[in-house]
Amino acid sequence: MAAAQTALQKGFTLIELVMVIIILSALGIMTSSYIGTGVDIYTDITQRDRSLNSVRFVMERLRREVSNALPNSAVVTSGGQCLTFTPIIATSLYGSDFPILPISKASGAIATIPAGDYSFESGDKAVVYLLSSDEITNTGKVKTLVAGTTNSRLMFVDADGFALASPAKRIYIIRNNISYYFSANQIFRGSQCDNGVLMAANITGSFAVEAATLQRNGLVQVTFNLDFDGQEVPVEQTIHINNVP
User: pLDDT tens for residues 75-104?
Assistant: First the structure.
């Protein structure tokens, strides 16, 4: 009977319970710390991946638009914070009777632009042999198109001829300028460095333009600066403008 009572009285001592509690607490602290570190790493990687995806999106959009820009139209202003260029709506070739001085008339035939590739809109302009961004405002090389313009014949607002002929007889049709610009750690796409749509946040950078040479076309250089935990990481892109005057 005494042996049975002794067996029933066996259990954990207070010291044993305290030790178990201490061990379980230590394991809990280590586990929570491990999980917290994993969550922090995952959050940091997610934020970096989001920033990189935003940059990739902007870089691809910028590459597509700038590479098809009007030759010599890209210009950088605002201390390198804004890039403005003129996209090409359509391109074609003109013939020997086209109004290039000394020929002057209010219309001219061009090689037919494929149906669907161009449809006249008010404000469209034709450009022949642009050598500088300043010449976009020079009516001698840029002529405003008017109603009656088709994909095979251009109608001009005046009868004056274009100032210079293109060596390859190229003619470009343009509309509005496009600007990409940095502001308040964000990059926007708009017009004349204003009225933009947000493209990416938490990003700074700058633009630079290298003029065309006899060996290559013009280049646009873009530097994006990403902030990763206080460390600035630059991402650079060089865009080749495909078209020539």
Answer: 999 999 999 999 999 999 999 889 999 999
Question: Are residues 64 and 237 in contact, defined by beta-carbon separation less than 8 angstroms?
Answer: no
Helix (H, G, I), strand (E, B) or coil at 114: coil
Report pLDDT digits (tens) over 122-138. Answer: 999 999 999 988 898 87
Q: Cis omega (within 30 of 0) on the bond before 114?
A: no
Q: CA 116: distance to chain centroid?
A: 26
**Under CATH, what is the fold of the domain 88-175?**
Elongation Factor Tu (Ef-tu); domain 3 (2.40.30)
User: Domain spans of the chain?
Assistant: 51-84+177-240, 88-175
First to last CA, the chain: 112
Tell me if 169 sits within 8 A of 180, measured CB to CB.
Answer: no
Output the CA torsion 65→69→72→73 (10° steps): -80
